[in-house]
Amino acid sequence: MQFSLQLRDAGEAAAVIEYIDAFGKSHVRERQARVEDGTKNGLSLKICIEAIRALIKPCRVTIHIDCDYIGNACKRGLPERWRRDGWRRSNGDAPANVEDWKRLFIMGQMHDITFAPYDGRRDGELERILERAAAVKIGLECDDGEKDRAD
């Protein structure tokens, strides 16, 4: 896991999106996100959204991310709970970055999204995309499931 992002400072993030089509061919796209006066968690949420927005049709998505907060929140079902409770936490306050959480929640209804730890395999590509400040690094793999279908 690698970071160089200060909390409450400007930050940049990059994503490498790899799509494996029905014939096993890899297609790669890149995305970037930038936040001013944000946090690592907010930046992580933004780059996840930007990466998923690149997907054309519903598919299974694995997001390799070096931010435990986003993956753990989703695994624990917090976005669903917040939605059910009117986008409020148990203390009555809205979660930080609530609009981005809403976007990610909606995208999760369209795609089968899972989170995994970032393994560093795309470091070179992500560094090249960012060029200046390495921030949150994620790799996203998408499989539309066609190669698994027997029809």
Gist of the model:
The chain has helices at residues 40-53, 68-75, 78-84, 98-110, 123-130; strands at 9-20, 26-38, 60-65, 112-117, 136-143.
Give the C-alpha Rg: 16 Å
**Low-pLDDT regions:** 1-9, 132-136, 147-151
Category from helices, strands and their pairing = alpha/beta
Shape: globular
User: Helix amount, in percent?
Assistant: 25-40%
Order of helices and strands: EEHEHHHEHE
| Helical run tally | 5
Chain oligomer state: single chain
Taking the alpha carbons of the first and last residues, their distance comes to 40 Å
Reported for the largest beta sheet, the result is: 5 strands, mixed
The total strand number stands at: 5
Q: Trace the largest sheet across and list its strands.
A: 2-1-5-3-4
Which whole number gives the mean pLDDT?
76
β-strand percent reads: 25-35%
